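User: Can you help me understand a structure? I only have the sequence.
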Amino acid sequence: QLVESGGGVVQPGGSLRLSCAASGLPFSRFSMAWFRQAAGKEREFVAGSSWLGGTTNYTDSVKGRFTISRDNSKNTLFLQMNSVKSDDAAVYYCAGRRPTLATVFASDYSYWGQGTQVTVSS
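Assistant: Let's start by predicting it. Here is the structure, written out as tokens:
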């Protein structure tokens, strides 16, 4: 089970930290990712982390602003969102897959959280 938290309302230029708590799966052996889905749009990859966190990847629009990290001792995935823009508004989902490297395709992930809403508003 994956449970996201930390969403909310953030002003443009502000920061937000999302968390994803994992239970019932071998989190430390999973590659993990954050996806997002804005209203009326398809779900898109945001950031991914290999199982040990040594390899990370980001979609171009968030590079330099967002940071994915994980604490395998606490079975938790994070997404630090800085310099938030209006285009970042969406429901954010964490996802997990057994192979050790994260991919950008939602269909590659077997485990999903329920999502947490991020609203960007001044």
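Now, to help you interpret it: The mean pLDDT is 94. The two ends are 34 Å apart (CA to CA). Let me know which part you'd like to focus on.
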